[in-house]
Design goal:
The chain is mainly alpha-helical and 583 residues long. The protein has 26 helices and eleven strands. It is globular, with a radius of gyration of 27 Å. 48% of the residues are buried. The N terminus is likely disordered.
Length: 583
């Protein structure tokens, strides 16, 4: 028998990401700040949740200059699909329904009012999860007593609600949920318990991440009227930032003991949570995927395939392994105490039978499982950092050759913040002189782009970076002889590339180039900006620029670790304060 969901606990959420009308559930229609980690798209591209200045909202100060204060934040954000999946896993042990990962069942991340199709999906998924939990081995994660026993359901509502809503339920909310025990026709105790769980999973207070505190911090003068988050709201920000999920028992206990009221207390909890690698590690990988633009639909990451006649060791499985390797690499660098420079210089790799050949290793020595290795220069040659891993090198290459243009422009734009204009369509079909035999890909590209105007003006600024990477073939294997027959020449003079040291640089190897990028202040500033945008879900703005500048200053020290940076994100004034944005 199906039981109808109870009124206020299951009304359709209204305005998501800004405004009121989120139903009658207490706390569902008050103004709220944005939650860290909510980034529907690449930082700085497209609508980003919490991005004041997008649409009709007020425009924030320029992002190039620090403006002391707190940025306005979008109200009552909706959990992202990945966060929803993490939450139901942590609360109920559910990772898939009908063999489909929970996150894949949802309609996808969006900003704005809850749509009817999305609401229908949330209802369907909630009902399926509730039924699966009550009929399976994870039942005790929701209810640990016999549903027919006195006060069992009430105690379950109170205990589970504290975790699911990230706060204690009000008496009215408990009464509302318990109303499912007195509907007509009556259900069995187990059916009532299932209906209660279903009601939780479609409640606005579960699906949204509201911040309801209204007390103004009178001591904060940079932004008069800035509102202090409650300790429970800070705990929720922490958990959704670092774990993409609800607070654990230790974090809730700290709130209940009034031990999350100072920056030092927040940092202590953040550092504890960061060390839970199985929960924070995925977040770190997800950030770095965003930083390197893997999630940018316009980027080349893992889009193309390669000619197996030219690269016989390349397979579709290689592409899968290359992506998994980079995620493992980013996490490992962070958890081995690595800093920004180690992302560009580490010799750690993760190898299986599908990507081993790209590193000169024997595929027969590996299985399907990625194995951590240190790449031996005698076998794999120079392999400093993620930009010399097969994932990047094979993504930024042509079908049957390398592409100094793709590699060089990527390094210029994403690592050094060098502006690269879009190619002029009028010159898209240009070819180099046909009466010349080109012995290397570099010679071909130089003839194509470096001897003609207007191409030369732009390509001077990034082709040299790509030429340095020519020792890696189209799938990332080391080569000393070009397939066209000539010797590889990776030496360049970066006369038009503005490194901080000034003037032209003589670079003769990928290792030299990675060391130069690792020392570049612009590269570190871009990295800091990416972290702040990802953590806050906001586009670049003057207020957050103050945090970016501080982190960039810290990154100047090679000993400043990624995990330390992650903890420092929780120390910004904007982490404990909010300014209500426009509805």
């Amino acid at each position: 028998m199906a039981l109808a969901a109870c009124g206020s606990a299951t009304e359709k959420p209204g305005i998501i990401g800004g405004g009121s009308g989120a139903g009658n559930t207490p706390g569902a229609n008050a103004g709220a700040g944005n939650t860290p980690g909510v980034v529907p798209g690449s930082a700085g591209t497209g609508p980003v949740m919490g991005a004041s200045g997008a649409g009709d909202g007020p425009v924030l100060p320029p992002a190039t200059t620090c403006v002391p204060g707190i940025p306005e934040t979008t109200q009552i954000p909706l959990m992202l699909s990945r966060q929803y999946a993490n939450v139901v896993k942590d609360l109920l042990g559910v990772t898939a329904v009908d063999n489909t990962p929970v996150g894949d069942l949802l309609i996808g991340d969006f900003v704005g009012a809850m749509t009817d199709p999305a609401w229908k999906v949330y209802q369907d998924v909630g009902a399926k999860i509730a039924a699966q939990v009550m009929a399976g081995p994870n039942k005790s994660k929701f209810i640990s007593c016999m549903p027919a026993a006195t006060d069992c359901l009430k105690n379950t509502v109170t205990a589970f609600g504290r975790k699911a809503f990230r706060r204690a339920l009000t008496a009215d909310e408990v009464t509302s949920f318990m109303g499912l025990n007195s509907v007509t026709p009556a259900g069995t105790p187990d059916q009532v318990a299932e209906a209660i769980l279903n009601a939780f999973l479609v409640s606005p207070s579960f699906l949204l991440i509201p911040e309801l505190a209204t007390d103004v911090d009178a001591t904060y003068t940079a932004t008069p009227g800035a509102i202090k988050l409650s300790q429970q709201e800070i705990a929720t920000r922490l958990s959704f930032l670092l774990w993409g999920s609800v607070p654990d028992d230790m974090l809730n206990a700290a709130v209940d003991a009034n031990q999350l009221g100072t920056s030092a207390q927040v940092l202590a909890q953040a550092n504890r949570m960061i060390q839970v690698r199985e929960k924070t590690g995925g977040f770190i990988s997800a950030f770095h995927d965003e930083w390197v633009q893997m999630n940018n639909s316009s980027a080349h990451w893992f889009k193309g395939k390669h000619d197996t006649a030219v690269y016989p060791s390349y397979t579709d499985a290689s592409r899968v392994a290359n992506k998994a390797e980079l995620d493992a690499f980013f996490e490992e660098v962070a958890y081995s105490g690595g800093s920004f420079k180690d992302l560009l210089l580490s010799d750690v790799a993760f190898v299986n039978k599908d990507n081993a050949a790209a590193y000169g290793l024997d595929p027969a020595a590996y299985t399907d499982v990625l194995t951590k290795v240190k790449l031996d220069p005698a076998v794999s040659h120079e392999r400093p950092g993620f930009l010399t891993r097969a994932g990047f090198l094979s993504s930024y290459a042509n079908f049957s050759s390398t592409s100094p243009i793709l590699r060089g422009s990527y390094l210029a734009i994403n690592m050094l913040s060098i502006p690269v204009g879009a190619p002029d369509p009028a010159f898209a079909m240009m070819t180099p002189p046909a009466d010349v035999t080109y012995k290397t890909q570099r010679a071909y590209v130089e003839a194509l782009t470096m001897t003609n105007q207007p191409c030369k003006g732009c390509h001077d600024g990034f082709n040299p970076l790509g030429f340095v990477m020519e020792n890696y073939d189209g799938i990332g294997k080391w080569q000393t002889t070009d397939p066209k027959g000539g010797p590889i020449d990776a030496s360049v003079t970066t006369a038009t590339i503005n490194f901080a040291s000034g003037g032209a640089k003589q670079i003769t190897s990928p290792a030299q180039l990675m060391q130069a990028i690792a020392a570049e202040p612009a590269a570190k500033s871009l990295y800091a900006q990416a972290w702040v945008a990802f953590a806050t879900g906001r586009r670049a703005n003057g207020y957050d620029r103050c945090v970016v500048d501080k982190l960039a200053t810290n990154l100047a020290a090679d000993s400043y670790s990624i995990l330390t940076l992650l903890g420092d994100l929780t120390q910004a004034d904007s982490f404990r304060l909010r300014v209500r944005g426009a509805l």
